[in-house]
Amino acid sequence: MPQGHIIKVFGRYYTVRTEEGDLNCVLRGRLKKDKRLKLYSDPAAVGDVVEYEVTTDGSGVIESIAERRTVFSRKDKGHKKEDLIAANVDQILVIQSFYDPPLNLRFVDRIVVRGEKEGVPVILCVNKSDLAIKGEAEDVRQYYRGADVTVLVVSALKKKGLAELKKQTKGKSSILVGSSGVGKSSLLNSIYPGLELRTSEVSESTGKGRHTTTNVEKVEIDENTSFIDTPGVREFGLMDIEPEELEKFFNEFREAGDCRFSPCSHDHEPGCRVKELVDEGEISEGRYVSYLNILNSLREYYANLY
After folding, report:
1. Is residue 269 within 8 Å of residue 259, measured between CB atoms?
2. Is 234 inside a domain boundary?
3. What does the pLDDT average to over 141-150?
4. Is the pLDDT of residue 62 over 70?
5. 20 by DSSP, 3-state: which?
């Protein structure tokens, strides 16, 4: 049976890239009952490797979905299933901007947790460095000291830092995550001028970006380099993580050493090594506060759940 990979999802239809060209497909009904796939709101996602059959009308039917190397998903409050966004990604590229819309490291931290949980490296790319105030770029780097996060500071407008961004993404499948208006499409257009992806401005009335990507879609640069573009994301749920698990996904906490009590939530316990390192300036206070915010949101969620 021939194989291809999904490059776009729109409703119940999937565009599968094959050796013969792109094929518009639907899922074989039995896949929706597959135990391996029932965890997710949608059984298939962009990046999935699939087997397919061509029907008499020239469209296709996806017959099977291969085992995934990695997944990128989220689970929001009140949702029973995880929202599967993409599969088989090599890294998560979180796009932020210094201004218009403003930098949101609390959002980035949630993506970092997801990347740590799934074993997918995270790169934070902060665009619009030409709008940053003095010292702001270094503040971001210091915020993630000790965390397993690569920080890139770039400007699509001024063409700064783009060579390093291109180097970090070459030969990999990167999923782009960020709110509308941060410049995801502008960055790709700057690195690869022939793409001509649509860009948007930030709304003057709301201060938020207007969506230019309405579906998850894979943009293939060459045989080994691709970007999975997602609609502007402003919130990111982590409701599949138990509160006591959270500290495992903050790398600098894992490296801190032993606390007096085990397990330690790094919240109220005396003799907490993480809190000591925060006080000593070895761990970013902002990252620690972000951890507490996520921890409290998970505690509240699970308390109401049970």
Report:
1. yes
2. no
3. 95
4. yes
5. coil
Long-range CB contacts for residues 51-59, cutoff 8 Å, separation at least 24: 51/1, 51/2, 51/3, 52/1, 52/2, 52/3, 52/4, 52/16, 52/18, 52/23, 52/25, 53/1, 54/23, 59/23, 59/24, 59/25, 59/26
CATH number of the structural domain spanning residue 114: 3.40.50.300
Of 240, 241, 293, the closest CA to residue 266 belongs to 293
Do residues 88 and 210 share a domain?
A: yes
| Domains identified in the chain, total number | 3
The pLDDT assigned to 232 comes to 65
Asked if residue 165 and residue 31 are part of one domain, the reply reads: no
Alpha-carbon span 135 to 9, nearest angstrom: 41
Do residues 212 and 184 make contact, with C-beta atoms less than 8 angstroms apart? Answer: no
Q: Which domain holds residue 145?
A: 72-229
Q: For residue 107, give the DSSP letter.
A: H
Both 159 and 263 in a single domain?
A: no
- Over 60: is that where the pLDDT of 202 sits? no
* pLDDT tens per residue across span 76-89: 877 788 899 999 99
Q: What pTM did the predictor assign?
A: 0.90
List of E strands, the chain: 3-10, 13-18, 21-27, 49-54, 60-65, 71-74, 83-87, 91-97, 122-127, 149-153, 173-177, 217-220, 226-229
Instruction: Burial-class residue 23 by CB neighbours within 10 Å (0-12, 13-18, 19+).
Output: buried
Q: Which residues contact 5 (CB under 8 A, 6 or more apart)?
A: 16, 17, 47, 48, 49, 50, 88, 218
Amino acid letter, residue 13: Y
Distance CA 303, CA 242 (A): 11
- Does 80 lie in the same domain as 63? no
